[in-house]
Amino acid sequence: MTDQSADARTRRKAPAARISMESRNDIRPYRVSFTDADLAELKRRVNATRWPDKETVNDLSQGVPMVPLQELARYWGTDYNWRTVEARINAIPNFVTTIDGLDIQFFHVKSKHPNALPVIITHGWPGSVIEQMKIIDPLVNPTAHGGTAADAFDVVIPSMPGYGFSGKPTTTGWNPEHIARAWVELMKRLGYTKYVAQGGDWGSMIVDKMGVLAPSGLLAIHNSMPAAVPAEVSKALASGSPPPSGLSSEEMAQFEKLKGFFAKNAYYAFEMATRNQTLTGIADSPVGLAAWLIDHGDGDAQPAATILAAMRRPRDANNPNELSRDDVLDNITLYWLTNTGVSSGRLYWENKEGFFDVKGVTIPVAVTVFPGELYQAPRTWAERAYPKLIYYHKADKGGHFAAFEQPELFAMELRSAFKSLR
């Protein structure tokens, strides 16, 4: 089996091969089904990995350590079962539609409760729709998760272009604003005239862009990694200058945290923003792909520490609010089977704006600050960035993959964030 044939099978399963008219606005059911040969080839490649020498340090300063990665690979190449997550994906109402020539796959789960508030939720990199699967039931079925019928949501969770089961752009132009416009169109096609939006990581920029567009019907957004860094702080970080005067102790702490992130832990993003196509090796080696998706810096950086901790922990049915080894592999395996390691990273090349820079959102905004996120936006910054801030809360746990790590808490945050809009 050649790489070309494996990728061709992935393309044949993609809905684009079944659509003859780009202008169609219809919404079609979608089902995930990779072949046994696909999965056998994955395990063959994992087990045939040629390993580098072990790192020469006892920390994460040289990247993902070899021993825990080897342990993960041993499990991946022997006992890991993709069919389990594939069945969970197919148990969710799953659809695809074509927007601006590209197939967009999405989950669409309606609540049984009347007057549920529609929400579109956007993942980031190195995530996927798998990140949000745990929050679907708490949102659509709140009475089973400590909420009331009045807390119910209808949930829409799309795969971003170049990610997961959505199409891969073959031309330039699919930047965050383009995706935001596509999400507005998606909600329109679903018949929603009033809805809210939520995002983290790239999703945070996309929902901010939706907030800038302020389409009719978008009531508010919730951002779990807000773009709230003031212009003078952003300028100092970019130039390596001292912090601007007048920062509070909390603001100074976040300045130093962001300074450390950009100095030591953001080079994966710079590579994808400038030389994305050079990463051809992650389309050829599953373990190379795994290392690339896992690595986000040293032990003080998220999500590296969270993922590395989970890599050695089996799934625990009694503790569903923590990432497990299977959670990590579910997401990485999705990237491998869809061959989206390189295509997903092109969003970094497409984007031309500062990730944490204020975008000019004018509609109501809710913010949750998670302690394990890349930085913790002070309320003072959030209020400046979002003039119509309707909710601000510092959660006591959770990190970069907040919906994945703490689904019950995350669902409660969305209920509280949008309660005033119902």
Notes on the protein architecture:
The protein has 422 residues and is an alpha/beta fold. The chain is built from 17 helices and nine strands. The protein has a nine-stranded mixed β-sheet, sandwiched between helices. Strand 6, helix 7 and strand 7 (218-223) form a beta-alpha-beta unit. The longest helix has 17 residues, at 249-265. The chain is globular. Residues 1-23 have low confidence and may be disordered.
Alpha plus pi helix count: 17
Radius of gyration: 21 Å
- The 3D shape can be described as globular
H-E string = HEHHHEEEHEHEHEHHHHHHHEHEHH
What's the assembly state of these chains?
single chain
Helix content: 40-55%
The count of DSSP E runs of length 2 or more, i.e. the number of strands, is 9
Uncertain spans, ≥5 residues at pLDDT below 50?
1-23
Question: How is the main sheet built?
Answer: 9 strands, mixed
Q: Cα distance, first to last residue?
A: 54 Å
Strand content: 5-15%
Structural class category? alpha/beta
Mean pLDDT across residues: 91
Biggest sheet: strand arrangement: 1-2-3-5-4-6-7-8-9
